Each structure stands twice: as C-alpha cells, then as structure tokens.
C-alpha cells in the first residue's frame, strides 16, 4: 500500500474510534460536547495516535489492542491545542484554518472543553486495560509515563518557557530543550505507548525513544518553518529555529534529525520501514 493511503487508512480507524468514544453533541450539557467534538474533528493529522499504531505493528501487536490508548493521546494533544490558542497563552484566532475553539464557544467553554479532553484522554488510556491480553501493570506504567511526559518536567514546563517573554536570543541548546519538552515529549510518549503495550524490551524501547526524540525535534522545526513560509501566523518575537538560524539552516537541521531518527531503528533491520516513512513524511509535510 502506498504510504499516503496507509496514513489515510489509519486516520479513518482513529476517527471512527474517537467518534464512538466521545459523547454525542445532543447529550447534556450540549455545549461542552459540541466544543470537544469541534476541535477533535477539525482536521488534525492524527500523527501521535498513528505513531502508537505503527509501533504496535512493528512489535507484532494487533492495533485493536492499543487503539484506545492511541485515541486517549490524541485527546490530550487536542486539549493542549485548545489551551495553547487561548488569549492568555498564544492568543491565536485560527487553528487548522478554522476559528479556534474559544472564538466559536467563548473562553470559558474552550477552557472547559480542554479540561474535558484531558480527563477523557486519561479515561481512554485506562480503558485500554479492559482489552484482552493487555497487562494491567502496563497500563499503570503507561499512565505514569504519560503524566511525566506531559507534566512540568516536559510538555507543561515547555509551555511555561514558551510563553515566558524573557527568552529571546536563546542559546541553541536551550531552544532544543524547549522543543524537546513542548513538542517532542508527547510525540515520543506516543511511540513509547505503542511499545509498552506491545511488551517491548529495554533495547527496543531505547531505540524507539531515540527515534521519537529526533522526529519530535524535527517536527517542531518544520512546524516553525511552515508558519513562516505559509504566513499562517503573525510572527511573534518568539525564539524559533528558523527565526534564529534562517530557513536553509533549519531545513538542513531537520534533515539531519530525521536521518538520525531513522538510523536509530537499525536494530529492527527491515521491519521498521513504516516508521521510516513516517519520519520522511514529517520532513516533507506541507501543513
Ligand atoms: C500537558 C497538562 C498539560 C498542559 C499543556 C497548552 C500546553 C500545556 C501545551 C501546548 C504545547 C503545544 C501547543 C505545542 C505545540 C505542538 C505542535 C507543533 C502542535 C501541532 O501538532 P500537529 O501539527 O497538529 O500534529 P494537528 O493539527 O495535526 O492535530
């Protein structure tokens, strides 16, 4: 199957599972369910849950056995985007070319829709323990992992640094640290989720983590390049790789990170082609 079709196929599986899980819009209180569904079904690429599924496939686990946790991670991602767009954070009126959640539902409901998606995300991950063949201990480990990867040491901490206006002219090392926390952490734990639920050994987990960190960093560099090239946002005085080093150097750096990510999959021999294709997709994506 061509990789584009593979991605589309996986995206449809995830969309169906999310639709089945999320309360319908006609369930009380209507507004919160409408707001949750508005952002979940507004054109996300589903990169994170797809990574969970690909990793499971690589380790010979059936994707049905990890789909619940994969969808939980997508809900956590959607929560972070809603909160990121709020006026008190990045103050963005648009997300994926559509009015952001608070522009449609107001700030209070957007805040609550984000909260609801974070809670529902963990509910879905916990529900994965009901799947036959999945060890309860793996789910406990996973909940602990995700809490760490999105907490103050990682995603949340990265967001704090990102909105802190004191960090212009940041050193390259500190910029990488920020990208690692803000973006790469959730991408990385999406892969680790697939690995943990497929009983990966330590060597496999280490290789997959390296892959996740590198594609996560490249993902943010490409994201910042797309923002500039597609002129989607008024460029804020934020320290980003392309703002500091220019587009050409950013492209070279993203290339290098993707190569390094693919190299870390050597231990899987030819079995990791799909993860390698996904790494290339991150580099070549247009949005
Ligand atoms: C985790 C408790 C907790 C708080 C969250 C708001 C916040 C704190 C963090 C936001 C971090 C953030 C918005 C990082 C940007 C990551 C990024 C590049 C998102 C875009 O990802 P895509 O392109 O999104 O995969 P789509 O639209 O495809 O879903």
TrEMBL record:
<keyword id="KW-0808">Transferase</keyword>
<dbReference type="GO" id="GO:0004659">
    <property type="term" value="F:prenyltransferase activity"/>
</dbReference>
<dbReference type="GO" id="GO:0005737">
    <property type="term" value="C:cytoplasm"/>
</dbReference>
<comment type="similarity">
    <text>Belongs to the FPP/GGPP synthase family.</text>
</comment>
<keyword id="KW-0460">Magnesium</keyword>
<protein>
    <recommendedName>
        <fullName>Polyprenyl synthetase</fullName>
    </recommendedName>
</protein>
<dbReference type="GO" id="GO:0016114">
    <property type="term" value="P:terpenoid biosynthetic process"/>
</dbReference>
<dbReference type="InterPro" id="IPR008949">
    <property type="entry name" value="Isoprenoid_synthase_dom_sf"/>
</dbReference>
<keyword id="KW-0479">Metal-binding</keyword>
<dbReference type="InterPro" id="IPR000092">
    <property type="entry name" value="Polyprenyl_synt"/>
</dbReference>
<dbReference type="InterPro" id="IPR053378">
    <property type="entry name" value="Prenyl_diphosphate_synthase"/>
</dbReference>
<dbReference type="Pfam" id="PF00348">
    <property type="entry name" value="polyprenyl_synt"/>
</dbReference>
<dbReference type="GO" id="GO:0046872">
    <property type="term" value="F:metal ion binding"/>
</dbReference>
<keyword id="KW-0175">Coiled coil</keyword>
<keyword id="KW-0414">Isoprene biosynthesis</keyword>
<dbReference type="InterPro" id="IPR033749">
    <property type="entry name" value="Polyprenyl_synt_CS"/>
</dbReference>
<feature type="coiled-coil region">
    <location>
        <begin position="247"/>
        <end position="278"/>
    </location>
</feature>
């Amino acid at each position: 199957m061509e990789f584009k079709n593979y991605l589309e196929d996986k995206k449809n599986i995830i969309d169906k599972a999310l639709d089945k899980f999320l309360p319908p819009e006609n369930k009380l209180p209507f507004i919160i369910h409408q707001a949750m569904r508005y952002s979940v079904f507004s054109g996300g690429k589903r990169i994170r849950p797809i990574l969970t599924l690909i990793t499971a496939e690589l380790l010979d686990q059936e994707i049905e056995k990890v789909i619940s946790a994969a969808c939980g991670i997508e809900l956590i991602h959607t929560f972070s985007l809603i909160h990121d767009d709020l006026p008190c954070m990045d103050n963005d009126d648009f997300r994926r070319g559509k009015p952001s959640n608070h522009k449609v539902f107001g700030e209070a409901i957007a805040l609550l829709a984000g909260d609801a998606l974070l809670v529902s995300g963990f509910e879905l991950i916990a529900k994965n323990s009901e799947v036959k063949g999945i060890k309860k201990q793996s789910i406990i480990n996973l909940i602990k992992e995700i809490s760490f990867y999105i907490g103050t040491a990682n995603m949340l901490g990265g967001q704090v640094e990102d909105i802190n206006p004191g960090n212009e002219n940041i050193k390259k090392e500190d910029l990488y640290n920020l990208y690692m926390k803000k973006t790469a952490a959730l991408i990385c734990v999406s892969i680790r989720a697939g690995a943990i639920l497929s009983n990966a050994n330590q060597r496999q987990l280490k290789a997959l983590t390296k892959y996740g960190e590198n594609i996560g960093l490249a993902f943010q560099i490409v994201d910042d390049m797309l923002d500039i090239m597609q002129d989607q946002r008024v460029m804020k005085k934020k320290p980003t790789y392309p703002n500091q080093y220019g587009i050409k150097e950013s492209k070279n750096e993203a290339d290098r990170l993707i190569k390094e990510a693919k190299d870390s999959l050597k231990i899987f021999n030819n079995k990791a082609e799909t993860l390698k294709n996904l790494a290339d997709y991150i580099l070549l994506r247009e949005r």
